[in-house]
Write a structure and sequence with these properties.
By secondary structure, this protein is an alpha+beta fold. It has 4 helices and 8 strands; from the N terminus they run E-H-E-E-E-H-E-E-H-E-H-E. Strands 1, 2, 3, 4, 5, 6, 7 and 8 form an 8-stranded mixed sheet that branches. The longest helix is centred in the middle third of the chain and has 15 residues. It starts with a strand and ends with a strand.
């Protein structure tokens, strides 16, 4: 598999939004484009010119906040997320970031899909907010919970650089 890693270009936006909507089960009209500014770091993984993964982070002073690390299900466990994280952490080091935070989802308050990846790179859980997603998106169908009531929690991880 020949994955090409490139910087963000607006031509990838539609596929990135679709990936995010499919993962969360939301079609809320929000776009990653609305979150992008001059402080954003976005890397895209391409296979045959199609987005198979991406990482979106934002520089906030001396801290890097990871918004998304998404890889299509059929391409998970192929090292794509690891490559994206390595590149992002290299950028953070070059920018002299002191810390990095990442928000993750504890599915139904338990399993965290990104936990092995975050632990691999030295992130530690610092707190959880139970019922967070249901409060933000009331009434939306949660694909992870298979329900209109979401039981997932927001989990915040910290890495000191």
């Amino acid at each position: 598999m020949n994955i090409l890693y490139v910087s963000y270009d607006e031509k990838y936006l539609k596929e990135m939004d679709e990936m995010e909507d499919n993962y969360w089960g939301l079609e809320d009209g929000e776009s990653i484009k609305d979150e992008i500014d001059n402080n954003s770091i976005i890397e895209v993984a391409l296979l045959d010119n199609h987005v198979v993964g991406f990482l979106h982070a934002q520089v906030l002073g001396d801290q890097l906040e990871i918004h998304n690390v998404l890889v299509k299900e059929e391409y998970q466990k192929c090292g794509i997320a690891t490559h994206l994280m390595e590149d992002m952490l290299k950028s953070a080091s070059d920018l002299k970031m002191k810390t990095s935070i990442a928000n993750a989802v504890a599915i139904r308050g338990g399993h965290i899909n990104s936990l092995p990846l975050l632990k691999k790179f030295g992130y530690e859980e610092i707190y959880r907010v139970e019922g967070y997603w249901n409060a933000i998106y009331p009434g939306y169908y949660c694909r992870q919970c298979d329900s209109r009531k979401c039981y997932c929690s927001n989990v915040v991880f910290l890495k000191r650089m």
